[in-house]
Amino acid sequence: MGRRQRRRSKSVDAPRQRVEPSPPLAIDDPIAPLIAAGVMLVAFALYWLTAARDIVVGDSAEFTTIALSGGVAHPPGYPLLILLARLFSWLPVGAPAFRVNLVSVAAGIATTGLVVLIARRLGASRFGAAIAGLMVAIHPLVWEWSLTIEAFELNAALAAAIVYFLVQWYQQPERTHFLVLAALFGGLASSNHHTIVFLVPSIVLLLWWRRDWLLSRPAVLAACVAAIAVGLLPYLYILWASRTDAVLNWGNVRTFGQLVNHFLRVDYGTFSMSAVAQKLGSPVERLVIVTLSFTLLEAVLLAIGAVVAFARARWFLWFALLAFVLAGPVFIAYANMITTGVGPWIIGHFLVLPHVLLAPFAGLGVTFLVEQLTQRVPSTKPVLPQTIIGLACLTLGAISVTRHYERINQRDNRLASTFAEDIFASLPPRTVLLAQEDVVVLPITYLQAIEKQRADVPLVMLGLLQGGEDYVSQLRRRHPDLVIPFNTYDRNSTSANNKALVDANPGRQFALIGAPLDSSLFQGNWTYQHGLVNLLLPLATDVTLQQAEDDFKRLVTTLRLPEPERVKWGTAEDRILAIYAQPFLRLARQYRRAGRVAAADSLTTIGARFDPASRIR
Q: Is residue 246 helix, strand or coil?
């Protein structure tokens, strides 16, 4: 009894030592950069072969237009992406749009190499690290968003760089420059995409585990704060770019307060994904999409690697899992994104980062499998298990690449620009085009600003028109012959609605694509299908069925109708196809009313090939 009490007393009195989740293992391998370079070469070959040579649907046309002509992108502005795109636009290769798309190609390639380096530092074998990098390179989401200019792959590359620098520093704290580099890239990442914030809790966790070391070195903390500030400097570009009066100049940001609002996405709602009310799917439906985004190979290797990390690099396990949960399941469950139609495609944009955060675990998983096979057969050298596992991974990878190649390949995708040209072909001279959908206004803006097509057509972006006086001022400067009878649009005012704009320009032809901002346009007007657009005609104007038929035949022959089999269904290209379907379906309805059933059925069949709704049915 006395001895037990003395031992207990000694145990209580002994000073507590802070215990880390697991001792950090550091592997300095001079060959690792060469392995990373080899994986990056494979990624380069795949991405170069399939990268977009033109603008595509999404924000591609907006970013490309701004990179080549100046201006400010939608909130938060993406200044780092735009600056890099301007830099890449000077490359002496391909068309301007292709050069700009190479930003994402380079980011995707860099991501694969960084995953190799991270996995190797964490204890993965060279073979395992290479497999982890290749797994990322051919992952459908990473591959898809590495082919056209978007913020998501650059976001993943910057996050991978942050993780790599943090791993280096956490394993060897005396190498303080790695922590400062992580801070710098954190600032740069914040100048690109806001979802980088989901790494902050994980970073704070690492800093907490090293708090005694950090608190004894205030100069290092000060250097990190300064590095973050330097990384945010690209936002100053927005203040300069707003003064150039470019064709795309979101928010007309002229003051520091406006810059802060732009950064915080006040126009959308800082904590909302979209300013537009949508019929949303449930969080469970969105989480199902997250789950289904994992390939079979990825799921198996990540699960094994996470178990290995629990024993060998537990600190990184908690770091990566926390970042993944926040950037993936938590964010997607919270975000106001739809889950039907193009919903899974939109959600996929935001899943690139979560997959990259987990990727190093795959290297540990492969390493563990090779070790187990080698131990099971004592006389076997590691080369045989590596060959077996490598062939299995390559086979599954080849199947995945083959399965997704046609859907992901953007090399010959010119649907967006062809669609905009077909809209121009549908417009009489000097027609004012009213539209608000990105899939319409962004390709048109690109062709007008960069390729100098149809300068006679004023494009009124209805989405921006309802945003305030800035856009009205821009329209007046750009189109002095267009009379805008109000400074601020107001759907409830008869002098500041859509009809007021039309009435202020008598004799000027107006056309509409999509829905107007209010119903006033139909007070005294009706819409007549004219190619891909709807011309606004006074109610007193009569168009005979024969004239409609003649116009249809004349205009349809000028349209370069897409091949539905080659369209990327489930993306924003669906909306383009729906617009191509309208000339056929609308004339078919007129035929049916006139009793020409056979002609109506024929046109309906053709239109249904382009109509996503018909495809779903």
A: coil
Rounded distance, CA 431 to CA 424, Å?
A: 10
pLDDT in tens, 257-286: 888 888 887 766 655 555 554 556 788 989
Residue 135 burial (CB count, 10 A): 28
Query: Structure tokens of 50?
Result: 């399939």
As a whole number of angstroms, the distance between CA 140 and CA 605 comes to: 33
Residue type, 300: V
Q: Which 3 state secondary structure label does DSSP give 533?
A: strand
| Eight-class DSSP state of 255 | S
Chain mean pLDDT for the chain: 89
Residue 444: closest CA among 353, 355, 533: 533
What are 213-265's pLDDT values in tens digits? 999 999 999 999 999 999 999 999 999 998 887 888 887 888 888 888 888 87
Contact between residue 347 and residue 337 where contact means Cβ atoms under 8 Å apart = yes
Q: Are strands 432-435 and 459-461 parallel, antiparallel or unpaired?
A: parallel
**Which bin fits 525, alpha (ψ -120 to 50), beta or left (φ > 0)?**
beta
Indicate the domain borders of the chain: 32-404, 415-539, 561-617
What pLDDT, in 10s, does the model give residues 315-364?
Answer: 999 999 999 999 999 999 888 788 888 888 989 999 999 999 999 999 99
Task: Of 579, 563, 566, give the one whose Cα is nearest residue 612.
Answer: 579
